[in-house]
Amino acid sequence: MQHPAEHSPLGKSSQYIAEYSPELLFPISRSTKWAELGLDGANLPYQGVDYWNCYELSWLLPSGKPVVAIGEFAIPSDSPNIIESKSFKLYLNSLNQTVFSSWGELQATLARDLSKVAGKSVSVRLRSLAEVASEGVAALPGQCIDELDIGVSQYDHPQPELLRCDASHVVEESLHSHLLKSNCPVTGQPDWGSLVVQYRGAALDHASLLAYLVSFRQHADFHEQCVERIFLDLLRLLEPQSLTVYARYVRRGGLDINPYRSTTPIVPDNTRLVRQ
């Protein structure tokens, strides 16, 4: 079956357009993957946000002098569409030779264009390099499970049957791994990420979680759907009182994507990791 992104610029040769062109943005409906995961878009079992950070953002002042900044875009996890990443990059590049009178004008333009394509209000924050540099590099919360001794032989698709828990023992903990990898469903290029699981519920076997995450290694899907699949598999297994799953992906083409999914309202920390 043809992937919804097949008609997007992804994996195709594209002309560099250096003047404002919002028509470059390409929406991909979330509904196809929601249906594949057994989800109803009107009644999702999670709330959350997809944070996109842009490290290649530049435009012109009225004087003709260039400006550079870092952009943060928060796309609601229940928006009808995601924005295809290459089209996002092409759109941002179209700002390079475009004049904006102020940071505020550019921010309003970005919010309007991205919200129109996503189908729901997208929050935009433009930040100076000095501001972001002052925050430094973050460490993930909780225990890293990457040094656990596991045997792995299957990498082609996610294997939720590997997950195990002790339903007689309820815990509250945070776990993380830097070994998440999947592939772009259109280009086949690797996507590298670090994943966090925070929950209160039946005690999750740490080694089984690591083996499960490694089983994504050759799986082809977008960042958002990988996180949603992990969230749903853990939700079914643990029947938790609370569950938050998020991934911080390594940037590609100047953009990193960071999906957050949770059973409870959260205020995500968008501080970059060492690989970002």
Number of helices: 6
Order of strands across the main sheet: 5-3-2-10-9-8-7-6
The profile of the biggest β sheet is:
8 strands, mixed
Secondary-structure-based class equals alpha+beta
Please report which band the strand proportion falls in: under 5%, 5-15%, 15-25%, 25-35%, 35-45% or over 45%: 25-35%
CATH topology of the largest domain: GTP Cyclohydrolase I, domain 2
> What would the principal axes of the Cα set say about the shape?
elongated
Number of domains: 2
Question: Distance between termini?
Answer: 33 Å
- Mean pLDDT comes to 94
The name of the CATH superfamily of the largest domain reads GTP cyclohydrolase I, C-terminal domain/NADPH-dependent 7-cyano-7-deazaguanine reductase, N-terminal domain
Tell me the name of the CATH class of the largest domain. Answer: Alpha Beta
- Proportion in helices: 10-25%
CATH architecture of the largest domain: 2-Layer Sandwich
Low-confidence stretches: none
